[in-house]
Amino acid sequence: MRLLYRYLKENYDLAVISGTTRELNLYSQMGFTPFYKVVGGENAQYQPMYLTPENFEKSPGGMLLAKDISFLPGPVEMDRSVKTALQTPPISHRSPVFREKINKITKKLTDMTKAKRTQIVLGNGTMANDMIAAQLTRLKGTGIVLVNGEFGRRIKDHSLRAGLQFETIEVSYGEAFSYETIHEVLKNKKYSWLWFVHCETSTGILNDLSVLKQLCKNTNTMLCADCISSLGALPIDLTDVYFASGVSGKALSAYSGLAFVFYHHSISTSTLPRALDLAMYEKNDSIPYTHSSPLIEALSSALVYYNSTSPYDQIEKVYSYIRKEIELLGLRVIAAPQDAAKTIITIELDKKINSQEIGSQMGLQGYLLHYATPYLLDRNWIQIACIGALKMRDIKGMLSSLHFVLQEHRENTVYL
What we know:
alpha/beta, Aspartate Aminotransferase, domain 2, 3 domains, 16 helices
């Protein structure tokens, strides 16, 4: 039914049936509407009915079957309370109520990360990293960027666009860094800063924050971390980290639209563009310009789950369960267990199996896997994120559908 609904929605505007009168209640539960009198003979009567995608989605059956389950790194499955919070009527970002709310969230994020200062910015992870790049332009000397995936490559691009002087240590996508090599590089030349991605979402590799903190501390190098995919997914200690970035819309399971910059020192005013100037945010307690109170309300609701208990253990359990089932299907996970971030599973498919077809067919079944970005399509990879408010029945349903889709694809493959 899930597949049929999505197939019809993509290709047709209307469905028509001759519904047996014995099952009219069933049809009405699915959103079918009568449009003519009952037809047929005395022993076989039928009710002509029609169905539109809109009517199906509003029906009890549609509410169950039309809902997509997200196994994407963002947006993720959200708790109902977060969705409700987004519908809160907007209030002025200059009001005392809004200021109190944002101050509480700032303190919560600061406590979660052990950073001394947190600024909440209206924007995305790209905005947060551009703000960090803008601050690095104020430092003298050469920096170094670590690249072992798509988002490390983007940090390199941020640095280039900001006009920073830097070098790179770059390894293949999915390869873990040699920290001995990084240590030697930092010892042999003075670097002003080092910038890396903590959880490399494109491959599922977790780069070692604690080791890099120690290496940079020993060589007086300012460490900057992209924590966009790790914030909320695993415990983070940003002590001794010069700058770090995060967002609301991934593992924190709130809506996209808010970005965070974490740091410890006070920032002086500068001539940087106003939108990138952290000093403006620091001076005005994260409210220098217009903010979004509904996004703040949704984030506040999501952060409730980080009070008495955190979802870290649950995320790891989901990861372990899915990874075990994936490997039982004979699929190769890119990240070795010792290097893996317990947040996302990157799967390399056999060359005879097309990742785009698999991802598309899973979408027709109502399970959204990550496959459509160019860096995944180029490598024939698919990804399953383990974050968000996932239910075990949906996890099992996704794995069952993946098994079916792969089996069907393999059986229909012609080997030349």
